[in-house]
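Sanity check. The docking grid for MTE depends on where the pocket ends up, so I'm generating a full predicted complex first rather than guessing from homology. Inputs follow.
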Amino acid sequence: MLIGKASEYRYSEITPQSVFLRRREFLAAMMASGSAFAAGTKLEGVVKSNYKVDDAVNSYKDATTYNNFYEFGTQKELPAIQARNFKTSPWTVSIEGDCAKPRKFSVEEIMKLAPLEERVYRFRCVEAWSMIVPWIGFSLSTLLKQVEPTAKAKFVAFETYYNRKEMPSSNYAGIPFPYVDGLRLDEAMHPLALLTFGMYGEMLPPQNGAPIRMIVPWKYGFKSIKSIAKIKLQSSMPPVTWNLAIPHEYGFYSNVNPRVDHPRWSQGSERRLGEFRKRPTLMFNGYDEVAGLYSGMDLKKFI
Ligand code: MTE
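Predicted complex below; grid placement will be based on this.
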């Protein structure tokens, strides 16, 4: 269960100012020395957030060796091997489209925008397995507010960095690249939507989407797009990779919903990595506070 809602807490309550300042100094020193934000770099000044679940956290090994990152292989163990040398620094993210202040940000600039929080989220893959992971980041809304979305912006489109030469499985993965995904603007602005830089106290390893990815915990895992290079605010609904690949199986919303089965299997239960028994899947993956985003929508139709 969620112990609290972000809206109930202010940063000043969860982040001592001194911790925040120390982290800014750490980032400044990293940038000045030219050190790369390599995977495994410990993140300083991370504050525990009130977003946490009671269930036991999965092991680092579970979360970093059982991955979906089709650019680096379609079998779960391959991204950890094939993304090992993926160069994730320097890295910029272009934020463009319907906003007053479009611009490119370096990852370091983005990381300085707000205190880094550790949030222990449930993560439910559409393939009916799940895990509990301590992600590190802050709400995507913090970044989007920087570019000042205009009234025309109704959706947010995300695009993963793509280079065929660096991504060995791009020719046979069976899905189009670059990997793309999207959210409605109000979904993207929901405090639970996490812009993620790290996990287990460290920078993300490449196989988990370094150096910057989304974690949208009330949606199936494929909405949590990795290694983001571009974010575009727009008036139209953006295409999403899995809908492009298999339109009759995947829609735009992809909210975790135990009442709507996948055409090929039940979504009523899931197996937590490391366990044998099945657990019941929870509506919105247990994040009931997002229900208001979908009031009046038929969630059997808008899958
Ligand atoms: N992002 C990109 N660019 N490419 C992918 O293949 N796979 C998605 C999502 N983001 C994917 C992606 C799927 S299907 C899942 S379940 C999650 O990443 C897996 O995240 P994890 O490997 O960190 O558990």
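Relevant for the grid: The helical segments are 11-14, 17-33, 60-65, 78-82, 107-111, 140-147, 185-188, 241-245.
Also worth noting: The domain at 6-294 is CATH 3.90.420.10 (Sulfite Oxidase; Chain A, domain 2).
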